[in-house]
Write a structure and sequence with these properties.
Blueprint (H helix, E strand, L loop, with lengths): L6 H10 L8 H12 L2 H14 L3 H25 L6 H8 L2 H36 L22 H16 L1 H26 L15 H12 L8 H4 L7 H31 L17 H9 L15 H7 L3 H35 L18 H17 L5 H26 L12 H17 L3 H25 L1 H4 L3
Helix pairs in contact: 2-8, 2-11, 2-14, 3-9, 4-9, 4-11, 4-16, 4-17, 5-6, 5-16, 6-7, 6-14, 6-15, 6-16, 6-18, 7-14, 7-15, 8-11, 8-14, 13-14, 14-15, 16-17, 16-18
């Protein structure tokens, strides 16, 4: 359970079975932005308003700080060991195979489940656009909802996942070009929102700033941490990066900077123009975000002239309509529809690279690690992952998947922060092109921040992680613990 695979061994393996190095710093930054800016900022702004009121601005800052500190730890490890697998590889080299498997399995909650959630969100945008277009096409419910929504299968979500998977099989360079287009559309749409909303800000909308206190701000930070999921996909692209020691830190920090500034400006514009006070019941008690009682209260007030941000399912688009910009609201919805496939693409990409390295280590069948003779991509594991994500998006409910994905991400960030400290102690002489400043302080604060945000997740999300880990350990006990290359001597 405690056998360690050295970083030198991982580096030698990657050199024997290389992936095509085609990504530069700009493409890596766009990878991070593409996999991060997605359903979260377009949808979860409403949930943050219900949990924190205008204080959701601080919630975004808090989530960004935790993510930024974790990025410092990621940057040192990614530059020191430019290997696909990211957190899984770092933990394998510092704490051993048992914890590496736990982290790799937890990352499924981050990547695959998040990709399914985004695919279902994209399907909803497609249905709405077709229905409100000039053609007035209404797709049958049985083909746009899974069994949980009164249908049979969410066919648009399935088709999206399969198309994205095939694109990833063709090649990383081609995927990066498509992703660059998607990122441009998203940034332009959110930039348009900022330009239109900031001049209309009213000071009165910020009072009271924190109606639910510090606890509400922290709850919102834990919920919207989902909006930062995906930047670590940059680290999983290590083996496909030119000059990774230099370009990986640039990509990590570049993506985090762009995402954080965008989120803050959007949050300020949303709270200052539309108002972000939480919805309350008749007794003046704030309602629980995502609850049935909140939905009923919003329905009661649906005929009012000014709807609460917490009641909006469109979030930013509804704000533009309230400001008298219906055409811009339609453009924002269209941009979200066009751009969300890039998030699905990058999340599936990150998941396949984790499984690729786990297969190469023998913890899952090594046939999954085969690379395509022409495109030099791990096509077997990419196809398997894409089909699994498509299946989940076709049938499973996704209402609370954001919090579930958060639990796996926070756990991975926590162990990566510890891995930096461990490797500083066990391998002090190893070359580190990028060194985390004040590493003992930074890594400790990162661990503390991840732990605090985990405590403020919903009860269901906190329970999912140990249950999911138990399933993973069962698979590891039945296969990986005996088939590991460290046991067979293949490493």
């Amino acid at each position: 359970m405690w056998r360690v695979k050295s970083l030198d061994t991982s580096l030698e393996q990657s050199e024997r079975n290389p992936l095509l190095r085609s990504l530069g710093p700009v493409q890596l930054t766009l990878f991070g932005v593409g996999s991060t800016i997605g359903t979260g900022i377009f949808v979860l702004t409403s949930q943050a308003a219900q949990e924190a009121g205008p204080g959701m601005i601080v919630s975004f800052i808090l989530a960004a700080i935790v993510c930024g500190i974790a990025t410092l730890c990621y940057a040192e490890l990614a530059a020191m060991a430019p290997i696909s697998g990211a957190a899984y590889v770092y933990v394998y080299a510092s704490f051993g195979e048992f914890w590496a498997w736990i982290v790799g399995w937890a990352l499924v909650l981050e990547y695959a489940i998040s990709a399914s959630a985004v695919a279902v969100g994209w399907s909803g945008y497609l249905v709405g656009l077709l229905e409100h277009s000039a053609l007035h096409v209404v797709l049958p419910v049985k083909f746009t909802n899974g069994p949980y929504g009164g249908g049979i299968i969410n066919l648009p979500a399935v088709l999206l996942c399969l198309v994205v998977t095939l694109l990833l099989v063709v090649g990383t360079q081609e995927s990066a070009r498509v992703n660059a287009f998607f990122v441009t559309v998203k940034v332009l749409a959110l930039g348009s929102f900022v330009v239109m909303s900031l001049p209309a800000i009213k000071d009165t909308n910020f009072h009271p700033f924190a109606p639910l206190g510090v606890a509400g701000i922290t709850n919102a930070a834990a919920s919207i941490f989902f909006t930062f999921i995906g930047f670590d996909a940059v680290a999983t692209a290590a083996e496909e990066t030119r000059n990774p020691q230099r370009n990986l830190p640039i990509g990590l920090f570049g993506a985090l900077l762009v995402v954080t500034l965008t989120y803050l400006l959007v949050a300020i514009g949303a709270a200052g123009t539309f108002g972000a006070q939480p919805m309350k019941n008749l007794d003046g008690v704030p309602l629980l975000a995502g609850s049935k009682t909140l939905a009923e209260r919003c329905e009661q007030l649906a005929s009012g002239s000014h709807q609460s941000l917490a009641c909006s399912h469109e979030g930013l688009a509804s704000i533009l309509r309230q400001l008298g910009h219906p055409a811009a609201a339609g453009w924002l919805g269209l941009a979200a529809f066009i751009a969300l496939p890039s998030v699905v693409m990058m999340l599936i990409y990150g998941q396949t690279r984790i499984f690729f390295v786990m297969a190469r280590d023998g913890l899952i069948p090594d046939r999954l690690a085969r690379t395509h003779p022409r495109w030099k991509t791990p096509y077997v594991v990419t196809l398997c992952t894409g089909i699994a994500v498509a299946f989940a998006s076709a049938l499973l409910p996704v209402g609370r998947l954001a919090a579930i994905a958060n639990s796996g991400t926070l756990f991975a960030f926590f162990l990566v922060s510890l891995a930096v400290l461990r490797l500083r102690y066990t391998e002090p002489s190893r070359n580190r092109p990028f060194r985390t400043p004040a590493v003992w302080f930074v890594a400790s604060v990162s661990c503390l921040g991840c732990f605090v945000l985990f405590l403020f997740l919903s009860r269901e999300a906190k329970l999912v992680l140990p249950l999911w880990s138990a399933i993973g350990l069962t698979i590891y006990g039945l296969y990986g613990v005996r088939r590991s290359r460290l046991v067979r001597g293949g490493a």
